[in-house]
Amino acid sequence: MGELWGQMGSLMATIMFFYTIFERFFPPHLRQNLQGYTQKFMNLVYPYVQITFPEFSGEGLKKSEAYTAIQTYLSANSSQRAKRLKAEVVKDSQTPLVLSMDDNEEIIDEFQGVKVWWAASKTNTNPQSFSFSYYPPPDAKRYYKLTFHKGHRDLITMSYIKHVLDQGREIAIKNRQLKLYTNNPSSGWYGYKSTKWSHIVFEHPATFETLALEHNKKEEIIKDLEKFKRGKEYYAKIGKAWKRGYLLHGPPGTGKSTMIAAMANFMNYDVYDLELTAVKDNSELRKLLIETPSKSITVIEDIDCSLDLTGQRKQKKEKSEDDEGPKDPLRKSEEEEDKKSSKVTLSGLLNFIDGIWSACGGERIIIFTTNFVDKLDPALIRRGRMDKHIELSYCGYEAFKVLAKNYLDIDSHHLFGRIGNLLKEINMTPADVAENLMPKSVSEDVEACLQNLIKALDEISKEEAWKKAEEETRLKEEKEKGESAQMDEENNEVITKEDVKENGFH
């Protein structure tokens, strides 16, 4: 064994000696020619192909999306296969501690029976600054190197790399934390670290399982969302932008906001809550749209109250007809306030929903909510803009059972039948039903909570009966007054005729 190591040492020393002679005495142009021939010879003998994916690319040295996707893909396997790992804290992720391959580590992956090798490497861009520091130099460039047999070139370049990138993006989307965004006023769009949208972590726990809604309606909405999510090729085929609009309408407290949260959690989409009153004009509205990425839900709640989209032209005309003269302070302050108000028009909003600019990004959902659907302009909610209209009404028996399961953890009870009969006759929103089912103290049990709900329904029933009786009484009094007035009018006519006869007129 010692003799073998001695021979290896002698061979290495010989190679280093000839390499030093070559570097020192051969002219540079001759060295380049020899290296070129050597590389060609190695290409004939070496049967493998290597592809490098650098961490940064482009003129601005922006972090490569391909590198990030590969890193995410390999991190799912490297913790089980690699011997040396490094841990990184990743923000906005459900798994903040991510394990990945350490530098100069290699793992083997397999695709359709073909083995490939992934290596994580780095190069020092300034070899003169070499030091024995424990930490890597700041100018080190990292990259992933993919090695495979040249006989599988087509499979790897056309299928495997696309598979890795797609899987990496899907894993990143699945692991990321959802965010809730709101738009900033345009006065704060510019400057250091200024953005058009501010966000917090979206932690709403609502799901379709906990949503107080009839089962059939839930299934209909879920199937519609699933079809949309898989509809990239279909939307391209029919020539439409990959987006879908939902109009949620119904009385207050029927679960419109909860529905939005359930849809976001189901689709794993970020939510962009657009406040129209903070948007200065149509141009700013378009800029905000450009800043919303794909796989997002843009929400305008209470669209009927957000802006007076139909009365702006009339108001402007009325103001232009005011008499000219010196402006008093009150009028001046009103004009200044008018300048600050939003100038978003109905036309601008329609273009925002389904104009040319709405096609940017792709895979986007737009949701409007309203308590009074009749107040909305028909052009705003027509099919093609708001593709699906979802009415959220008062609590029915199926919705009540969902709430009972959520709040009391029960599937049945002897009071369910009575409550179901009351809900058929009485209008109570799911929010009010949930409030009555929620225990108010640790001593309240299931029976007490259900009795609270029954008591509340009885009170509403009595109140509605009282209002109905009061309305009937009012109508009866108005009818009697009308009949009395008619009789008085008829009597006056009779008296008038008698006076005429007495005075000798015929």
From TrEMBL:
Cofactor: Mg(2+)
Highest taxon of source: Eukaryota
Keyword Manganese: no
GO biological process terms on file: response to stress
The keyword Aminoacyl-tRNA synthetase is assigned to this record: no
UniProt region (Disordered), positions on chain: 311-339, 467-506
GO molecular function: ATP binding; ATP hydrolysis activity
SUPFAM superfamilies: P-loop containing nucleoside triphosphate hydrolases (SSF52540)
Sequence ranges assigned to domain AAA+ ATPase in this UniProt record: 242-396
Reaction(s) catalysed by this chain's protein: ATP + H2O = ADP + phosphate + H(+)
Basic and acidic residues: compositionally biased ranges: 326-339, 467-483, 495-506
The entry's keywords: ATP-binding, Hydrolase, Magnesium, Nucleotide-binding
Similarity annotation: Belongs to the AAA ATPase family. BCS1 subfamily.
Family annotation (PANTHER family): BCS1 AAA-TYPE ATPASE
Protein name in UniProt: AAA+ ATPase domain-containing protein
